[in-house]
Amino acid sequence: MPSCRTLGALAALLSFAAPASLPAQSTSVADTTTVTRFRQAVLRASPEFAARRAELAAAKAAARGAGAAPPLVLAAEVEEVPDGIDLGNAGALRLEVGREWITGGRGPARRDLARVETEEAAARLALAEQRIGARMDRLLVAALGNGAIAARLAAEDTLLGEAEGALRARFASGEARYVDVLRLRTERLRVRTDLAVALTDERVHRRALLALIGSGDSARTLRALADSVLATAPSTVLDHLPSSPPQVDSLVARSAAARLAEAGAARAEATRRLRRAEAAPSLTTGLGVQRFGAEEGGFQVGPTVSLAVSLPFTAPGAARATRESADRSAEAARLESVADLASLRAALESARDRYEGARERLAVFDAALLQGAQEERESAVAAYRAGELSLLELLDFERALSRTEISRIRSRVEAAEAYAELMSGDSGDRETD
Q1: What sign for the dihedral angle of Cα 352, 353, 354, 357?
Q2: What is the rounded CA–CA span in Å between residue 103 and residue 209?
Q3: Which of 69, 137, 265, 274 could staple 337 via S-S, CB 3.0–4.6 A?
Q4: pTM, to two decimals
Q5: 4-424 — its CATH code?
């Protein structure tokens, strides 16, 4: 289940649906609860998560029987059968029960291997949960971020529409040039093109987010829950994302990817010990009864004892190849684990750098100045209508304000994406948003 810190971050991710000019509001507990329910629903509906959970159950079941004493073996032998079918008058009958007793440490080695495989399956399950959660977070942020950008561009288009109405009136009275009409229409065309791109990106990420839910009887309920999450807008992201994220060492330590890498190396080492144990001599004994023909006629019955010892040294080449293969496999797994951990650390450091960079860019934006500039928009249009502001000045003002607010939204999106990746400990499977 996600941590409280991660859930707080998820609630913050939803802030992008609110216009940048709105004052910060307190986070709604209902919003956080909705995000939590949505994440749990996505996990329950995920085929990948279900497969990893079944894999863990299978590993636990296998571990319960691993290393147990080998079963008894019942052996029967018949010799000298008259006519090939007269078993009652066979010259010799033997019935024996045997078991392998000395196994060269195979039992403990098998138990160790089963334990490590269970830990590996648990790490795969945790990694699936982290990756599905990280994927959901990134898609959610991208959808809401593009929605906020679209809202800002729509506001810009509305202002330009009002300016165009005033310009037409001035043009009709001969107070404006036709080139100004063309300039304004060209600017509106640019804004509407950018708006169409933002709306398309929002729909793409929204559909990708809903695709995590899949289909089935509960799909409609889950999609309604997703719509509720996408429509929610709690407080600004700056109120929730910390100025200094956790250190990379602690993030690596809690990452399921790191656990999986270490479990892979441990499994190879346990396999190596098992292969060596299997190459050791083993002892098998048996105890039974035998019926055989007597010299004076009839049959006699007596006990039988058997003893068998495997001699691995009689096949030195195969034993040596088995040991060498296991040793090299363990070494390869160890090196792969080191490489995976290095890759994980590099990915988390990169995400941390992106997060801090986005935070630094956000610090550049002065919320009070942006609020004041937003309030001046109506005054700018009024001044333009009164002829106190030229068209170029109005366009430059609105374009600069729009680009600043969109840059602020994108910085928030990048910060939230990087933070979600950090807190999930995700080193791969990153979506291209």
Answers
A1: positive
A2: 54
A3: 265
A4: 0.72
A5: 1.20.1600.10
